[in-house]
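Continuing the series of single-chain predictions for the mutant panel. This is the parent chain; the variants come on the following pages.
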Amino acid sequence: MSDDPTTPVPDSPFRPEPGDRDLAPQFVLPLVVRIERAAPPPRTDALETAARAVLVLLGDERSTGDGAWARAVRDWQDARIRKVVRRARGAEWRRAEALPGITVTGKSAEVRVFPPVPLDGWPKDLARLQVSGTDLDDPEPPLDADLSAPVLWMNPDLDMSAGKAMAQAGHGAQLAWWELDEEARAAWRDAGYPLAVRTPDPARWRDLTTRGLPVVRDAGYTEIAPGSCTVVADHPALR
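Parent structure:
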């Protein structure tokens, strides 16, 4: 579930072709989802919570200016944008919570996001966590999205594991954040980063991809073909 979204924009961390960003030291944003064996979270709740966790880290004062995480966040954003979702339960989760980071809670999902780390420099308590096998389901279909709030639309033609989809939702939230001006970012932050993750029907998906909204294109490292459109970030301020 390691992902690098790409769009063909010069000097972009999402550019598909090799470039200067590939020469920079490479970092990854770790996310850990809590999946207790007896009570796994619903899939949509986990996706939404992961996306909000990325936004919470980006908007945290420690990630900007002279904050404690600012250098790591800048180094991460200066290179390829990578996110890796791992899973934990019980003592694994407690050890993860002891590391510097932020736990974001959804309806029942819990996701902890950590400041970026070098690709080969994971803290041992995170490195030992499992990446594969993060499969979650929705016991009931999610309600229709409130279109007055941001919606991250997932490609209906792609079959992704929950962990892969969580990383992609995080990419979509990050693209929307980058596109917003400071006033819109502050409003989103002050509201608690409301958002929904939904899968439209194929006709609606095709329409969404033509509206000029931020689109995540996957690098194809895992699960899906390179260049696949995975998410459209539909924020009201960008419509």
